[in-house]
Amino acid sequence: MGQIMGGKNGPYNHVDFGKRIVTPNLGTPEPDDRAGNPYYPDNKIQTTKYTILSFLPKNLFEQFHRLANVYFLFIVCLNFVPQVQAYGKEIAMLPVIFVLLVTAIKDMYEDYRRYRMDKEVNNRICRVYSGAEKQFKGCMWEEVRVGDVVHVGCNEMIPADLVLLKSSDKTGVCHLETANLDGETNLKTRETALPLQEAPSWEEGEHFWIECGRPSSDVYKFNGRIKHRKTVLPLSKAQLLQRGCVLRNTDFIEGIVVYAGPDTKAMLNNSGPQYKRSKLERQMNIDVAFCAVILVIMCAAGGIGNGLWINWYPQDSAQLFIPPIEGQSEGLDPALDGFIRFWMYIVIFQVIIPLSLYVSIEVIKMGQVYFIHQDIHLYDHSSDTSLQCRALNITEDLGQIQYVFTDKTGTLTENMMVFRRCAVGGKDYAHNIKDEMKGEEALRKSIVHIPGQTTQDFIMDHPMVPEPNSILQEAVESVYTEAPPSGEQGNYSELEEFFMVLCVCNTVMVTTGHHDPQESIDQQAIGATSGARWDASGDNIAFEPETDSTSTGNTSQTTPIQYESESPDEAALVYAAAAYGYTLLERTPRSVRIRKPDQSEITLGILNILHFDSTRKRMSVIVRYPEKNEIVLYCKGADEAIFSQLDANIEGQQEKQLTVEGHLLNYSQEGLRTLCMARKVMTEADYLTWQGEYTKAAQHLEARDEMVYMCACRLEQGLTLLGATGVEDRLQEGVPDTIAALRRAGLGVWMLTGDKQETAINIGYSCHLLQKGDNVIRFNCHDGKLIDQQLKEICLQLGACGCQQCRPQTASCMEKLHNFCCRCGHTVEASNTCLRQQRNGAVDASEVGYGASLDITKKIRRVVPAAWIGPDEDVRHMPPKQNSVKTTKSLQGNASSGDPCLVVDGRTLALLLEEQRADWLLAVARECKAVICCRATPLQKANMLKLVRDRLKVMTLAVGDGANDVSMLQAADIGVGIMGQEGMQAVMASDFSTPRFSFLRRLLLVHGHWCYYRLATVVAYFFYKNAAFVFVLFWYQLMNGFSGSAPGDQYYLLFFNILFTSAPQIVLGVLDQNLPDDALSAFPELYAVGRESRTYRREHFWWNICDALYQSAVMFFIPYGAYADSDVGIWEFGITVMGVALVVTLAHLAIQIKCWTYPHVLIFLASLLLYLIFSLVYSAACVTCNPLGNPYWLFQHTISTPEHWGLLILTTVIALFPRFLYQYVQSVLFPTRVDRARLFTTRPYGDERSSTSTATSFVIS
């Protein structure tokens, strides 16, 4: 048992409840095993939401959080009031019970699955040290407690979050596979918390304690400290082994549990799918409110009509529908009777607010997500991964995106770095790649062989390994010869130090050998502990030289060495150094062993590693040369981060910096990623002084990051520049075509990157974000006063305005133009271009710039060509593009007739994002075809996206692959994470994850279009169907004196929506296609249907309500007139009306379906058969089910009459004829783009008009 912590020297004497104190459980167990660590939960996990006893009340409580369920519960309770009762008390509960029951069964099934997975995980066996038995013994995972010492073997899973104390590796490290936690497949290195010579002895019961922070869901952060033998050492993520990870390439480890069960990072990240409310759902909720208003109006009309009816008739002849209250001889007051009828009508007309709408939409979205996952075109064979949806309720938003914000590195590019250029000794050296390979071939050949020390041959087949530059190769070889080439004196040490930076200043792992598992591990159930199982498998960067197993090299025995890196940049630099003979052989937490070109080996002691962060933009490693006992700091980073730290007093430093800056400019113009290398020699005294400050900062828990940052900045000063590198990051396959398709679809594509401006511009041209002839405006201004003047100058040149006075009129003008273009079938992009060009020519720029009041009507007349708005307008052709009208000058004074494109650097962006300039920035950005923000920080990326999203009220999508993109992904309406080389943080924070950027084309243009069209159609149909049915009931009230009775059996009334007509619209929402996928991919312009919300708007809602009003009148009054003055009773009349309503609503839906499949046909037939079978059985067997009447054999009798079938056909034709006629006329005389595309896709392939050029002009016109 761990020591009691309340004693004199116990760590709880200074406990801070913002921290956690952990002591090892090494003593003899006592009845209360929690005495040492009493406040922390055990390792048992419980992801279930319910127990057997709590399921019913808790599930009902959760379901009634939905306002619609509360509404219908209120209706059920209202129906229990005798004076208001419209249906049988038990019967009225059936629809609500059905919906609640379906949802409860779904929740129960999901919870039972979680229970089984929890049980499987909790019953796993691990080994925990027993203080009584002085040995490790088997223990179930759920019995592990904080403070337990756990033994884990190779290929076994970590049962809880452990701090590593012992490792079988002689260097005190172990290797973890974290794929179950974050999806990353490359191994991570962890090192022991204590020096090897101070490893604790469990048998002696040696005590120590650990102080760490509260449990956190951040899998990449851990701060703490350990006190052992009067020594306090800092702890970081390098010592933390997280639950769910698997031990690899290490025989065993032993660690102490610091977080268990629900406190582990795996469980804290088990939050399930993200919830976002889609744009269509927000609009739908408003329309539900309109339905409530219609309901109140109808109920009020019915109540007033009832009161007037009673008031108009003499008292002796009035037929009161509610018995008089006892003691009142004069009967019920008309006003009171009307008030009561109002509430009765609330019960009768309740279904105008669709009860099953939300449940149906959930089912539809689940089906849509399933088919997105099954799309073979969204599967990447090279990585064996496919697109995954993590947010299940925003699929339709994929079809309504207006702006795309994308990162560059790893998103548009492969993030597979290739060493291309380097500058050292004042000279620039270019490199080529021996073999250009792609995909699986590259992975199969990713092996580097270095024969034994008897030869200097370097045979490399890995695609990332460059071919050595002959001049630089000669210079390197000359370092170790007596006769250096002329002109190279004085550069030998600098050249060697340059390559030493490439070898040492990184975190590349060197692992050897293979280990057999101590026991088989069932990994299938890890999803219960980690919360998200990623189907992504990133590419490990492997480098396998054959090296001697000993440092002397006297034996021919070789063991394979494998290189693995979390950063592709670092891997590329290590490959480059190996190409010139500087081979990394071994890395431990305390040392690094390197083989030089002359086959000699050197081992450097690693004193400290200052890891890279996005603020410093540098990484440093402090090493000690044992032979010279010299302490050297090697540093690499961005050019601006290195140049600002150089020692200006060193002779020739400034000239060297200017030379390197020239080389870097050339590199960036080629699109290469650049880094600078530097070094600094330290004295022992200086290092010890700094080390004391750094140790104190590292032991701090609350402000550790800030204090370590300050220490690093103080040390990384007075550097000596060594050189620079240029690494190529190739574009992903299909990126240019994808961006071009997104641009054709009308989406604004912005690139936000942390790279240099020249590199970003070069990639912009490569991916077709920028094109030749574009007017690229480079806005680089770091002066807060000057920037306002330059910003307004750009606005005047572009005819834009960002002042508060102009914004309402500009918005009104654009809204009118937008509505007009949508009505005529033109693109808004064309209107924006025309508006911009006409402003630059016809409108005085100064007038627009200073926000003069303009007449909106005249302005639209002036900027829109006459052919667009004339009575004889030709809507079949796009207006001509007017590229020659505008001549815009950039800040550099270069004239260009191309489209404007804005490029902004990070420092300028920080000023532009300030509140007083934000509107002007947006005004300029909206006039530009493309926007590139370079040197942008993660926060700036998120703020830029928020500015566009909130100020312009547009739908945004963000794409990224790294941790620096997380804030941007979370700020967007839809975040898409790329499964790349920079880990899985972006994927974990995203709504959708994809292995390739090019998959966005199909995801948005095909699946996004389908999902929006389907759901928009289903929502509109839901409102129509329920309104039509309720209006039929309302018409009946006009014919019976507003009595509150219904035309037919109450079972038909209640089951009409939840049984007879519920399935067909679900099939439409999951399977229907208004266009085939190849047409949507070939004609990106069709995406405007969803981007501009053309399928479902407010006017569509009211149009469907009016259509429902007309159809309901036809469905009621035609049978009413046909049965007038006949002996047909109310029940036979009701059966006919219900049958007509069913057929009309299903036929109405059939008209909407654009792609009939077998499921469509089967579901429609099944709905009709269900109604028929239910009616036959109910009418034949349920004689006493309805106490208000006897339905016996009524249905059989009614359908046997010819009048019934004649009315069924006649009413259906008359009810649907206007809609059918409208759709036909609209598709023939006023076709939309979708109509044109559908017509084209149905043409014979032999038709000469099926050529691509003809099709494109035909569809987008």
TrEMBL record:
Residues 548-565, 881-896 have a biased composition (Polar residues). Residues 987-1232 form the P-type ATPase C-terminal domain. It is a multi-pass membrane protein. Residues 537-566, 873-896 are annotated as: Disordered. The active site is at 407 (4-aspartylphosphate intermediate). Its cofactor is Mg(2+). It comes from the Eukaryota. Pfam families: Cation_ATPase (PF13246), PhoLip_ATPase_C (PF16212), PhoLip_ATPase_N (PF16209). It is an enzyme of class 7 (translocase). Residues 37-91 form the P-type ATPase N-terminal domain. Keywords: ATP-binding, Magnesium, Membrane, Metal-binding, Nucleotide-binding, Translocase, Transmembrane, Transmembrane helix. Its EC number is 7.6.2.1. NCBIfam families: ATPase-Plipid, ATPase_P-type. This is Phospholipid-transporting ATPase. The lineage of its organism: Eukaryota, Metazoa, Chordata, Cephalochordata, Leptocardii.
